[in-house]
Design a protein that fits this description.
This protein is an alpha+beta fold and 289 residues long. The protein contains 3 helices and 13 strands, in the order ααβββββββββββββα. The radius of gyration is 40 Å and the shape is rod-shaped.
């Protein structure tokens, strides 16, 4: 059947409308896609910015937490120290000070005998009496061992000594807690002290007393010794004499056997000077500031 002219026009118009609709729809879908893609990119950018800001805030928060932890830990440590000092000052309780200091004290054992020492530098430098390391004829021991408070046995390397002051410096491997020295010029007769040592092999024994006098003269002719009534026995040699602040004010050196409670400790200022002289000569460094 032949289409009439108006039928052809109607069909053509409808086709044009369909084509126009398809073009319009395509353009609309394209614009919608472009818009969604743009929104997606904007959203990704915002998410990236938010992630960056969040990570920055998390890092800042973590830093603040760590700083707060350090401050609190430092303040707690200081508070514990103040409490221990208060307890020692107010009465007879040195337990907190002793507990804090024991890790810095060691037993010294040689093939000739034993004594005590204490750690003066975190890298394992130990000070003791020189006579602890030698026999009665002055011959140095073949082997020296240091036993820590945790019962770890360490071979000690001999660094040097000062025969006049009876001071020797040793070295063991590892990282350790070190003692803190007090100024022996500030020590006064009558103040409380404690001695830590290994009398007759009884490791890490503690005795208490007072300073009987200061600047006593030793066998070397130096007015460099603190006299104390804290009990000292064989094995205490080389151990620390400590004040109520937990600071080393002397190294227990000798006692007068014919008397009661007549012990003597080399004053801390002489110890520090002697250690640094040995360290400078043998190690080319200063151990104690």
């Amino acid at each position: 059947m032949t289409l009439k002219r108006h039928h052809k026009i109607l069909i053509g118009s409808f086709g044009a409308i369909v084509i126009l609709f398809m073009i319009t729809t395509s353009i609309f879908l394209y614009l919608l896609f472009v818009n969604q893609n743009l929104n997606y990119q904007i959203l990704n950018k915002k998410i990236g910015t938010l992630e960056t800001e969040t990570n920055s805030k998390i890092n800042e928060l973590a830093k603040n937490v760590l700083e707060t932890k350090d401050i609190v830990g430092s303040e707690l440590g200081s508070l514990n120290k103040e409490i221990n000092l208060l307890k020692a000052s107010a009465g007879e309780d040195f337990s907190g000070i002793i507990e804090a200091l024991i890790p810095a004290v060691v037993t010294i054992r040689t093939n000739y005998g034993q004594g005590t020492g204490f750690i003066v530098d975190s890298e394992g430098y130990i000070v003791t009496n020189a006579h602890v390391l030698a026999d009665s004829n002055g011959f140095l021991a073949d082997e020296v061992r240091a036993i820590t408070s945790s019962q770890e046995v360490k071979t000690a390397e001999f660094v040097g000594f000062n025969s006049e002051l009876d001071i020797a410096l040793l070295k063991i491997s590892g990282n350790f807690q070190a003692v803190e020295f007090g100024d022996s010029n500030d020590v006064q007769a009558g103040e409380k002290v404690i001695a830590i040592g290994n009398p007759l092999g009884l490791q890490f024994s503690v005795t208490q007393g007072i300073v009987s006098s200061v600047h006593r003269t030793g066998a070397n002719g130096l007015n460099a010794y603190i006299q104390t009534d804290a009990a000292l026995n064989p094995g205490n040699s080389g151990g620390p004499l400590i004040n109520i602040e937990g600071k080393v004010i002397g190294i227990n050196n000798f006692k007068i056997g014919s008397g009661e409670n007549l012990g003597f400790a080399l004053e801390s200022n002489y110890i520090v000077s002697s250690i640094n002289e040995i360290a400078q000569e043998e190690l080319n460094q200063t151990l104690i500031q």
